[in-house]
Amino acid sequence: MSSFRQHSDPELIALIAKDNEFAFAEIYERYKGVLYLHAYRMLGDEDEAKDILQELFTALWVRRKELNFISALSAYLYQAVRNRVLDVIARKKTEEKYIDSLSQFIASGEYITDHKVRENELRSIIESEVARLPAKMKEIFELSREENLSYKEIADALNISDKTVKKQVSNALKILRQRIEMIAVYFPFV
């Protein structure tokens, strides 16, 4: 391999095109240090700089048959490192934007699906508790809450006093509150 140290870059490129692994190893040894420093200075991250070098030299070997157009290998390699670094920086910015967007979404507390599920569960619990009310109280409560009738309209429809309607609705709300509070103790999701 030491015989390749005297070869010029164009000669090494020609040898690489002929699948000469020793010529490739010479190019790698010749440029890995300065290219690593170039990538590291731009990124400030050792691992990413190493990854960029690995990708660059892998691509160089894969495209070895197409390298005959390169007149200045060092300039080509520096530009390739620079382009890969810019790609990494662009990818990081995109990731940061995505993470910021996700963080803002989480911070805003907008868990729509969770709220809908809880709302449906609560509605189901309320409906089952209303169904457990005494028959007359249930009827008055449903006319008040579901039909949106006034106490006077309910009293007229059922031939009872306004005060009775008011008392029945009040009692129904009191019973429902107690039952729902009791359920909430055992099922804190409510």
Automatic annotation (TrEMBL):
CDD domains tied to this protein: Sigma70_r4 (cd06171)
Keywords from the named record: Sigma factor, Transcription, Transcription regulation
Record domain RNA polymerase sigma factor 70 region 4 type: where: 126-175
All residue ranges annotated as the RNA polymerase sigma-70 region domain in the record: 27-93
A Pfam family matched in the record: Sigma70_r4_2
InterPro entries, sorted: RNA_pol_sigma-70-like, RNA_pol_sigma-70_dom, RNA_pol_sigma70_bacteroid, RNA_pol_sigma70_r2, RNA_pol_sigma70_r4_t2, RNA_pol_sigma_r2, RNA_pol_sigma_r3/r4-like, WH-like_DNA-bd_sf
SUPFAM superfamilies noted in UniProt: Sigma2 domain of RNA polymerase sigma factors (SSF88946), Sigma3 and sigma4 domains of RNA polymerase sigma factors (SSF88659)
PANTHER family in UniProt: RNA POLYMERASE ECF-TYPE SIGMA FACTO, RNA POLYMERASE SIGMA-70 FACTOR ECF SUBFAMILY
Family from the record: Belongs to the sigma-70 factor family. ECF subfamily.
Name this protein carries in UniProt: RNA polymerase sigma factor
Organism whose genome encodes this protein: Larkinella insperata
